[in-house]
């Protein structure tokens, strides 16, 4: 017995680690009064069933660094136990993903839903124009991520939320979620998503306007940027990522709505009045979906504008090149007839005697035409049919000349 106690003690000791404490905000409805508490807890503290506000609150929001938790086996085990995080979430696939949404019911041995877990990842690319060390325009960018896991308990409608990684955006989301808590909606595990998606949609709006401003600046200063092809190519490069992320958000939102419908269709505990609150959540998600779709249309429109701008820039450059070539051709045209005549008269077929002023043409002048005309014909025919003949005789010739 004593040995077992000792082993338990050692096991508890082994489960602790030196990772920094996690900031956890807990929200509780105490007879109509909303109580918000902030605690600093270790991952092991999250497993306690009392002593902490985290253990008894209706809603808890914990901020954690995903990579640190991944690296620490003890923290990872505690998180798995407390939040039932799915195995795929820890994989490199999820870590490198450009976005996802997952949902899973927690079932008892009879197949009755006792809770639910959902996990989501959104990404947004922020861009801005700056001057580099040489005073030349360049585009700076950074990624903003929202990585969240939600664990909901059906028996007491408690929700545990973990926000990972991007600290500023995670705090912004935490404040939005706390602001939007409606005690009547806590029986629906999806109550947290309208707030999150709203923040992400607002960020997409900002970043789409950022790319639009880059584009507008280029359009207004077209002459200044005319031959700065490197900068011109940077704009669509970032715009492609911005657009991709709006598409991904829209796809995630579709998935959230689909799973929410599944929840509404299968939740037997839902009676008439709360069901209307839960349907309101679906309405808010529908409305946000519509806004994200329209943001995507704007992003596509920006993309069409930059393609148009690139086509115009290259056509303009080609036109300027073509004007220079035309000027050179005109000069050649002016001198060519005179040069041709001078070349013929300087041949030995013509003989000019300076002292007497007598000018004679050789009777063999026909030889000039006899050589020049066939040679011209051979040259023109070769120019027309030479590549076709070479393709048949020696197909690899183009590799040497192109
Ligand atoms: Zn740890």
From TrEMBL:
<keyword id="KW-0472">Membrane</keyword>
<keyword id="KW-0812">Transmembrane</keyword>
<feature type="transmembrane region" description="Helical">
    <location>
        <begin position="366"/>
        <end position="389"/>
    </location>
</feature>
<keyword id="KW-1133">Transmembrane helix</keyword>
<protein>
    <submittedName>
        <fullName>Uncharacterized protein</fullName>
    </submittedName>
</protein>
<feature type="transmembrane region" description="Helical">
    <location>
        <begin position="327"/>
        <end position="346"/>
    </location>
</feature>
């Amino acid at each position: 017995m004593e040995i077992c106690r000792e082993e338990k003690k050692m096991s508890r000791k082994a489960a602790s680690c030196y990772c920094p404490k996690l900031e956890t905000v807990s929200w509780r409805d105490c007879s109509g009064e909303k109580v918000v508490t902030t605690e600093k807890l270790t991952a092991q503290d999250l497993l306690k069933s009392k002593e902490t506000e985290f253990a008894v609150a209706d809603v808890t929001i914990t901020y954690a660094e995903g990579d640190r938790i991944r690296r620490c086996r003890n923290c990872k085990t505690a998180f798995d136990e407390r939040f039932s995080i799915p195995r795929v979430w820890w994989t490199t696939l999820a870590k490198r993903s450009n976005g996802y949404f997952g949902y899973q019911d927690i079932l008892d041995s009879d197949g009755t839903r006792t809770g639910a877990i959902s996990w989501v990842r959104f990404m947004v690319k922020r861009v801005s124009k700056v001057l580099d060390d040489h005073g030349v325009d360049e585009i700076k960018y950074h990624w903003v991520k929202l990585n969240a896991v939600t664990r909901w308990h059906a028996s007491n409608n408690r929700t545990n939320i973990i926000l990972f990684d991007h600290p500023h955006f995670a705090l912004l989301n935490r404040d939005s979620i706390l602001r939007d808590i409606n005690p009547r909606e806590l029986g629906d595990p999806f109550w947290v998503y309208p707030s999150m998606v709203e923040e992400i949609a607002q960020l997409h709006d900002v970043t789409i306007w950022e790319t639009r401003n880059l584009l507008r600046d280029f359009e207004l200063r077209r002459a200044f940027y005319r031959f700065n092809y490197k900068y011109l190519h940077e704009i669509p490069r970032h715009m492609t990522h911005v657009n991709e992320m709006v598409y991904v958000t829209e796809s995630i939102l579709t998935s959230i709505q689909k799973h929410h419908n599944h929840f509404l269709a299968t939740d037997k505990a839902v009676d008439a009045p709360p069901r209307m609150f839960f349907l309101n959540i679906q309405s808010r998600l529908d409305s946000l979906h519509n806004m994200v779709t329209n943001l995507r249309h704007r992003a596509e429109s920006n993309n069409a504008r930059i393609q148009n701008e690139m086509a115009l820039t290259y056509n303009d450059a080609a036109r300027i090149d073509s004007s220079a070539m035309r000027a050179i051709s005109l000069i050649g045209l002016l001198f060519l007839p005179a040069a041709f005549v001078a070349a013929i008269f300087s041949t030995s077929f013509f003989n000019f005697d300076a002292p007497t002023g007598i000018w004679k043409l050789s009777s063999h002048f026909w030889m000039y035409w006899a050589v020049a005309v066939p040679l011209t014909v051979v040259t023109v025919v070769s120019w027309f049919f030479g590549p076709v003949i070479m393709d048949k005789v020696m197909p690899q010739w183009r590799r040497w000349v192109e």
